[in-house]
Amino acid sequence: MRVLGIETSCDETGVAVFDTENGLLAHHLFSQIDLHALYGGVVPELASRDHVRKLVPLIRDTLAESGLELTDLDGVAYTAGPGLVGALLVGAGVARSVAWSLGVPAVGVHHMEGHLLAPLLEPEAQERLKPPFVALLVSGGHTQLIHVRGIGDYELLGDTLDDAAGEAFDKTAKLMGLPYPGGPLLAQLALEGTAGRFKFTRPMTDRPGLQFSFSGLKTQVLMAWQQSDQTAQTQRDIARGFEEAVVDTLAMKCERALDAADCDTLVVAGGVGANRNLRARLQQLMSERDGQVHFPRPAFCTDNGAMIAYAGALRLLAGQRQGPEITVQPRWDMASLPPLSKLTSE
Ligand code: ATP
Ligand code: MG
Ligand code: FE
């Protein structure tokens, strides 16, 4: 089954074709970073309009690279939520129309399920990575620990009370004067920072539980930055101290979640999953526990069409179908998704 995947939940237009027999055939991404940089953050209406401009040309490019015609497609998957309503509607409208005109099924994919399944785009992970496992989703809008009992069968174990991990990276970067979007830049600086010169708290690790809170950390960084000499090296050292606090906190809660769910496999996905120190720490943690950890390749940690094509292909194969109406769910609880096993048995 050859599935076209379309991602337009925020400020990235992503398109891919996943073939259930031959794997990922092609993927293209257009980032709107330059468009929003001027405003220091994503402007929803500008995002929608740019998806309108870029989506159809990207579909053409992706099909050309796959060596396919539109009529070779067997299904279309698109991000139906969560995300910006206008941006989602562009993807849903185009995806639904393409499917309708071709007479093939369409399916609306949960963006975070896309992130969660992205490690499975690697053929070797498909052999080794099987539920049950614990997933750490760390992105611009989410920080969640999820017990994955099966594909589509998700239990939320922990969530953030305020900022998401990626949001904390972006906001911390901004308050030290780094340009938008600062998260990856801050991580880059942290690589050259001195470990231990700045020590920030590990929020909510001194009590039991799997909840997160990152907004206080931002304030600590602001105080440290304002009271410092503000040299380039100090900026790197503060970045390092901040990153270590986030990485430590995430690692501690992953351990707790693995214990609570009695699992020895961890999946890490979402933009912050591209962070080198986080990857190294969790790799070390899982080897100490004699378990395994799986990450998407860095390019598939952040938003992309491939993860949507893949998640959609699994759901279409299991028989899930979307009606002809064009609907999106800007807010959408992952635990409400139908488990794949239930779809197959119906
Ligand atoms: P969501 O998926 O929750 O809707 P999103 O789609 O905006 O949010 P992603 O595209 O998954 O989020 O990830 C973007 C986030 O990842 C940004 O906040 C960015 O700062 C962060 N990020 C990307 N690379 C790194 C890195 N190397 N280290 C830390 N953070 C990173
Ligand atoms: Mg983005
Ligand atoms: Fe995302």
Automatic annotation (TrEMBL):
Q: Which residues bind substrate?
A: L137, V138, S139, G140, G141, D170, G183, N275
What InterPro entries does its record include?
ATPase_NBD, Gcp-like_dom, KAE1/TsaD, Peptidase_M22_CS, TsaD
Provide the catalytic activity annotation. L-threonylcarbamoyladenylate + adenosine(37) in tRNA = N(6)-L-threonylcarbamoyladenosine(37) in tRNA + AMP + H(+)
Matching CDD domains, A to Z? ASKHA_NBD_TsaD_bac
UniProt remark on cofactor binding: Binds 1 Fe(2+) ion per subunit.
E.C. numbers: 2.3.1.234
Check the record and name the Pfam families matching this protein.
TsaD
**Protein name in UniProt:** tRNA N6-adenosine threonylcarbamoyltransferase
What are the required cofactors?
Fe(2+)
Q: Gene symbol?
A: tsaD
Instruction: Report the transmembrane regions from the record.
Output: none
Query: Which purpose does this protein serve, as stated in its record?
Result: Required for the formation of a threonylcarbamoyl group on adenosine at position 37 (t(6)A37) in tRNAs that read codons beginning with adenine. Is involved in the transfer of the threonylcarbamoyl moiety of threonylcarbamoyl-AMP (TC-AMP) to the N6 group of A37, together with TsaE and TsaB. TsaD likely plays a direct catalytic role in this reaction.
Q: Where does Fe cation bind?
A: H111, H115, D303
Describe the family membership recorded for this protein in Swiss-Prot or TrEMBL. Answer: Belongs to the KAE1 / TsaD family.
Record has Lipid metabolism as a keyword: no
Subcellular location(s) of the protein: Cytoplasm
- Where in this chain does the record put each Gcp-like domain? 24-310
Q: Name one GO molecular function term.
A: tRNA N(6)-L-threonylcarbamoyladenine synthase activity
Instruction: Recite the UniProt keywords alphabetically.
Output: Acyltransferase, Cytoplasm, Iron, Metal-binding, Transferase, tRNA processing
